[in-house]
Amino acid sequence: xxxxxxxxxxKSNPGSAKQSRPDNSxxxxxxxxxxxxxxxxxxxxIIMGFNMYVGAAAFKATxxxxxxxxxxxxxxxxxxxxxxxxxxxxxxxxxxxxISGYQATVRFAIEGGEPVExxxxxxxxISPGDRLEVxxxxxxxxxxxxxxxxxxxxxxxxxxxxAVLVYGASLWGASLIRRKYKGK
Length: 184
Prior knowledge:
Helix content is 42%, strand content 24%. By secondary structure, the protein is α+β, with helices and mostly antiparallel strands. It folds into two domains: 27-63 and 150-184; 64-136, CATH 2.40.50. A five-stranded antiparallel beta sheet has the order 5-4-1-6-7, with no helix packed on it. A two-stranded antiparallel sheet has the order 2-3. Helix 3 runs antiparallel to helix 5 (160-181).
């Protein structure tokens, strides 16, 4: 039986199928994986930032304001919290990296006049006797922050910088891989 015109149209050319199929080589797959992973990590960081913003905005909406007096302000190091081991050179032994910050002991009166004393990270040196506005949680008055240091936007924007960097690095890495293996 002789092939008809419709049979010729439906027959595929084995050489043309290879050309229309996407390149599934290992470098191409890895570049796609890198790009997708970067996008997912960036999305996760954006969601974390949004969640931090919502939490900070909720705290600000329910927080009460009080005038606080700084009783003490001390410089603390992370040795109290978490030691980190580093090596400067192979000849030297491991030593502890010290990261420090300021933490103020503050006294303020909550609604009803009850005095509360708590420690608040201050990020800067504050002199004892200074009076600053404090935001505190009415249910847990020891959970307090300095009003001047607090912003929901600042809290929420913190993860956006790494999100942009991670996504940009993944796109850059994927393009480098594709460019390197394109000719091969």
